[in-house]
Amino acid sequence: MSVLPFGEDTPSLTGAAKLPRLVMREEGQRKKVISAILLVILAFQVVDLPGALLSQSSTEIGIAVLGVGLCGIAYLFNFLDRLTVVSVLLIAVVDLGCGLMLLTMPMGLDVADLPVFDVLIVSELIAVSLLPPKSVFLVAMSNILFILAVIALQPHTPELQMLLSSNMAYNAVVQPVSLQIVVALVAYIWVQSALRALARADRAEEIAELQRREAVLLTREAARTNQLDRDSEHLLHVLVRAANGDRTVRASLSQQTLLWRVGSALNVLLTRLRRSGQAEEEVRQLRADNARLARVAYEARMTVQHRAQNSSQSTELQE
Fold first, then answer.
1. Which of 86, 120, 161, 206 has the least C-beta neighbours within 10 A?
2. DSSP state string for 89-100
3. Distance of CA 46 to CAs 41, 63, 72, 103, 163, Å?
């Protein structure tokens, strides 16, 4: 019998939710177990159906058809992932099958029918396996009330009436009731122990998963830090070369790095500074050319004036 964990009954990490992968794994495991149990119960119902048809008893045929029908409805809800509804329907199939068989005995309740009460523990096992463990006590209580009601109210055959009138009456009544109680207690304790073991295993797996994630994050952070250091050194080298007058230097960073935008902005700034330097150089060159031209013009004017004075002086001497 498999034990399926439930969130309200299973301890976990304090203040931390289960990892989605673990939740999906538990849901998948629960669905597989429910599907297997549903298949087994359906197989028993299908096996009983030919016997009911051969008996030509409308009651037995109705009970068999009802069981198969409930299993079909359970398969529909199982396809829709309504696993709790499927679990309740499986309990109903077992309890209704046993209950209707006992309630429809044509000769009344017989001594040979008393072992049928023991079959009701199957519903307890289904409840403790597929539903929250505490539900086993509710199912056990309903089974006990049903057993007592059937023994007290159902017509008895002479053999059973003789048994109930003898010293064995107490044992005949207490045996199926005590079996329900013992099975419920033992199953609950066993399932709780198994759930605690599963919780410890899940907690260890969660811790291992968190440690793995932390290691991955630390590795990524270390790689990012190293990349930042390399990029910072590269940008510093570019700034130093630019400060020393190298106007052609540029930052070469990949777009996957964090400082790529900084490098791009620095390249734009260096380009503009280079263009500004070129413009200033052109202005200086123009000013130098203008000064040279002005000097040449001045010298030419002075030469012309000097020649004019010499010419005037020569004319006066000739007169």
1. 161
2. HHHHHHHHHHHH
3. 9, 11, 11, 21, 35
**Axis crossing angle, helix 121-130 with helix 20-55, rounded to the nearest 10:** 160
Tell me the pLDDT tens digit for each residue of 84-132.
888 899 898 888 888 888 888 778 888 888 888 888 999 999 898 888 8
Tokens of 136: 């086993």
How many angstroms separate the CA atoms of 211 and 213, rounded?
5
State how far the alpha carbon of 256 is from the alpha carbons of 5, 197, 236, 261, in Å: 45, 46, 19, 10
> What whole-number distance in Å separates Cα of residue 66 and Cα of residue 70?
6
CA angle 19, 202, 39 (to 5 degrees): 90
Q: Under a CB-based contact definition with an 8 Å cutoff, are residues 176 and 145 in contact?
A: no
- The separation between CA 7 and the C-alpha centre of its own chain, rounded to angstroms, equals 14
**Which distant-in-sequence residues (6+ apart) come within 8 Å of 156 by Cβ?**
108, 109, 110, 164
pLDDT at 300 (0 to 100):
78
Closest residue by Cα to residue 263 from 274, 276, 253: 253
Q: How many CB atoms lie within 10 A of CB 243?
A: 9
Three-class SS state of 156 = strand
Among all chains, which residue has been given the structure tokens 């051969």?
54
Q: Taking the domains of the chain in order of start, what are their residue ranges?
A: 20-214, 247-319
* Axis crossing angle, helix 135-153 with helix 121-130, rounded to the nearest 10: 160
- What are the φ/ψ torsions at residue 109 (nearest 5 degrees)? -75, 130
Contact 117, 173 (CB under 8 A): no
DSSP label at 8? T
CB 117 within 8 A of CB 66: no
Q: Are 17 and 205 in contact (CB under 8 A)?
A: no
Global pTM? 0.60
Per residue, the 3-state secondary structure of 237-251, as one string, reads HHHHHHHCCCCCCCC
Render pLDDT for 122-157 as a digit per residue (tens, 0 to 9): 999 989 888 888 999 999 999 999 999 988 888 888
Element (H, E) at 319: none
Distance CA 102, CA 25 (A): 41
